[in-house]
Design goal:
- This protein has about 120 residues and is an all-beta fold.
- The strands form two sheets. Strands 2, 4, 5, 6, 9, 10 and 11 form a seven-stranded mixed β-sheet that branches. Strands 1-3-8-7 form a four-stranded antiparallel β-sheet, with no helix packed on it.
- About 0% of the residues lie in helices and about 45% in strands.
């Protein structure tokens, strides 16, 4: 499995970005995809996830209502729409997956065995 994250950039507070995670593999539609982020000097934290083919979505409290995760199976891509961005959203954003992930561990980075290279989001005040 290979993942490639893109779409990061510099944006002012209150602005928006759309991140993309392109994945390889014919089983993409059945894969759980998670987004995590890591700010300088901080641990990697869960942002959002979309669970398997059912498409149930899950969010960290800090982004719920501002970020939206979605998938386009025809394009083997998962998107993370970032709205109402804040300076504290500044981080490198990673997408990840694992074929064995279960719902109870969807927020744990250690549950994901395959990671993209990350894309930097910088929000200026």
């Amino acid at each position: 499995v290979q993942l490639q994250a893109s779409g990061g950039g510099l944006v002012q507070a209150g602005g928006s970005l759309r991140l993309s995670c392109a994945a390889s593999g014919r089983t993409f539609s059945r894969q759980t995809i998670g987004w995590f982020r890591q700010a300088p000097g901080k641990e990697r934290e869960f942002v959002a996830a979309i669970f398997r083919s059912g498409g149930s979505t899950y969010y960290a409290d800090s982004v719920r209502g501002r970020f939206t995760i979605s998938r386009d199976n025809a394009k083997n891509t998962v998107y993370l729409q970032l709205n109402s961005l804040r300076p504290e959203d500044t981080a490198v954003y990673y997408c990840a997956t694992d074929p064995s992930i279960i719902l109870s561990s969807i927020r744990e980075s250690r549950s994901y065995g395959y990671w993209g290279q990350g894309t930097l989001v910088t929000v200026s005040s």
